[in-house]
From TrEMBL:
The lineage of its organism: Bacteria, Pseudomonadati, Pseudomonadota, Alphaproteobacteria, Rhodobacterales. It comes from Paracoccus yeei. This is ABC-type glycine betaine transport system substrate-binding domain-containing protein. InterPro entries: ABC_Gly_betaine_transp_sub-bd (IPR007210). One of its GO terms (molecular function) is transmembrane transporter activity. One of its GO terms (cellular component) is ATP-binding cassette (ABC) transporter complex. Residues 1-25 form the signal peptide. It comes from the Bacteria. Keywords: Signal. The keyword Signal applies. Coiled coil: none annotated. The keyword DNA-binding does not apply. Pfam families: OpuAC (PF04069). Residues 34-312 form the ABC-type glycine betaine transport system substrate-binding domain.
Amino acid sequence: MTSIKVCLTCSALALAALPSGQARAEPNCGNAGTITIAEMTWASAGMLAQVTQRILQDGFGCDTALQPGDTVPVASSMLTRSQPDIAPELWVSTAQSVWDQMIAKGNVYKASNTYTEGGIEGWWVPDYMVEANPKLKSVTDLAANWKDFADPSNPEKGRFYGCPPGWGCEIISDNLFKALDLGKTFEVFSTGSGENLKASIARAVAARQPFVGWYWGPTEVIGKYKLVRLDMPAYDPVKFKCLTQTDCANPEVTGWAPGEVAVAATTRLRTDAPDVAAFLSKMTVPNDDMNAILAWADDASASPEETAQHFFQTYPQVWKTWVPADVAQRVEAKLAD
């Protein structure tokens, strides 16, 4: 009995001698020091930066700092300086060459996919048009249903809203228009800018008028105006490469590849803060949820901080899957402050 008491006493002393993080076995920041987070300038990225910061600070007890920036400058800084530590929404295709260099160098890795379906491009119509015409399901159905999109100024043809001039999607969408031989029944209408395209969608939906055109997601436009993406064939890299070229001699129909949107992180976090790395490996948001969140933020003219608060309060079924239960409890406790 005496020997048992001695052993128990030794065990208690040994546990007391361990660093507090080890004794409690709680998720923590390890040796990470201050963790820097890229805060991009668009709504979804700004919100995700705020969400990441609050989980790290309130849930894991980390020291954090936000670093403002945009895709290419942030990617370049991560390549050359390994800063910031985390970019919660890095559009890889926008900085593909820099991304390839980071992966080759080994100082940055993709912790997870920011969105479950990736970035999505395509041709979209309002939900009420699909409800009114169940035959309208695919881009290949447009030619036979062009009258649904008749332009009042030119009722002999439908109006197709093209990608804004100068954007990378312009050449692709124009070539796809040719591949579908839509010139016989539609004319391409250019709004001149992304903001004008957004305004055109808003006007059409407000009046329940026809609309078909290019757009991308996740964005507040998809969620707010309840746009439905028309079906497209599976992505074919050979066909798609031709669609990206102004001199594509024989454009063929193919869908867009999902855009790679990464939660990018510096590899030091894997060793310096493994609990943080584990959280980042699970950090992904369903596209439909982000569309809805951005629609709410647009209607409310919400700041990134306010949008993050809305996300935490309204989508616990999403973010609570990213972290252990005790981390989620600490985050929730701070939300109530």
